[in-house]
Amino acid sequence: MNIKLIAVGKTDHKELEHLIQDYIKRLGFYIKFTFDLIPDIKNAKNLSEIQQKDKEGKLILSKISNADIMILLDENGKLYDSVGFSKLLQKHMNSGIKQLIFIIGGPYGFSKDVYNRANGKLSLSKMTFSHQMIRLFFIEQLYRGFTILRNEPYHHR
């Protein structure tokens, strides 16, 4: 199984990008992982929130195949602790799917079309984080999930 993270907009902070790349490298020991960035929408200031979400949604959906399982990182998604999240990863790996895709939307969230295509929603916290920080938090949790599945000492129980 491959895991892909799709996010809207680039990471502006070099420190965050460095940490993200560190965890991506670590993930490579466990699974094929790709991080795909969708560029910011040009002239977004001239668009309504709905127009911006629709444009981002079309770009997101263009990167998804019918066979992919797509999970949105969404504030109204299901909350898991780290062990529960690792069990979710194991469940998807056991299901035989080829690609599991997680999506971080733009500043206003997701379009209706993206919500309609999604196979599920996941929340990392009841708190709100910047779209740039959530990338690091999510990739770290993926790494943690795989260390839990392998009973490695990174996650202390």
UniProtKB/TrEMBL annotation:
It is found in: Cytoplasm. Pfam families: SPOUT_MTase. Its main location: cytoplasm. InterPro entries: Alpha/beta_knot_MTases, RlmH-like, tRNA_m1G_MTases_N. It catalyses: pseudouridine(1915) in 23S rRNA + S-adenosyl-L-methionine = N(3)-methylpseudouridine(1915) in 23S rRNA + S-adenosyl-L-homocysteine + H(+). Homodimer. Specifically methylates the pseudouridine at position 1915 (m3Psi1915) in 23S rRNA. This is Ribosomal RNA large subunit methyltransferase H. It comes from Aquimarina addita. The gene is rlmH.
